[in-house]
User: Fold this.
Amino acid sequence: MDNLSRLCIHTITTKPWDIEDAAREYSRHGVAGISVWREALEGRNVRQSGQMLRDAGLTVVSLVRGGFFPAAARSDRRTAIDDNLKLIDEAAELGAPLLVLVCGAVPGLALEECRRQIKDGIAAILPHAAACGIKLGVEPLHPMYADSRSAINTLKQANDMVAELASDHLGVVHDVYHLWWDPDLRSETLRCVQGGNLLAFHVSDWKTPTEDLLLDRGLMGDGCIPIRKIRSWVESCGYEGFIEVEIFSSKYWAMDQKVFLTKIIEAYLAYV
Ligand code: ZN
Assistant:
């Protein structure tokens, strides 16, 4: 079998499977890593789930996803911080070294204010992350999500925030779906990797037309993202971590997930 030693799949990619099914099938197909969405752990003992994944031979790459810091009311910002502190504990129990942060945004709240609150929120949880040995990864999202999901939309913004907060436990999550369009992508990617701040690399593809802003991501090769070129930038400065397939797609979720998993592996080998 071809080398899948750096292939990681997010549980959300095969959403119809519960985490036990995903672990068994990923492992059986030679997938090396798994990133766990919080929803996949619902109703389960987190520590035991982490052990179950390791027993299946999988590396637990990250817990997804914390963040969502901005809110109009101070009490809601406090609730978000408390929730993130719990997620850091969950990541530690799961044995995941990284908590991915989707930073958040609120319609009607100025983006500058959202960014200030995001920075304050991350600063508030960093000491607990450091105490637990968990890294936090700031994932910039495509600007189409600037209304309600993230006010951090470019790799430069994420790099700048990581530089300002200067912590060994803070870095960047690089997702080609969100970043491929950015004219500064090469230079900011090199800056991120050279600074030792690249914590994760996510892949999928951008379809034309994209029929749903959230649930119509493509499999690698379905769309127009130059994944190999971006990967070469990421690796030119020494990134050797996992390459994580993260796809939300109502079309692929409607498919037999065993067939879909085979397609993921074929696409990974052909287009990544
Ligand atoms: Zn991602």
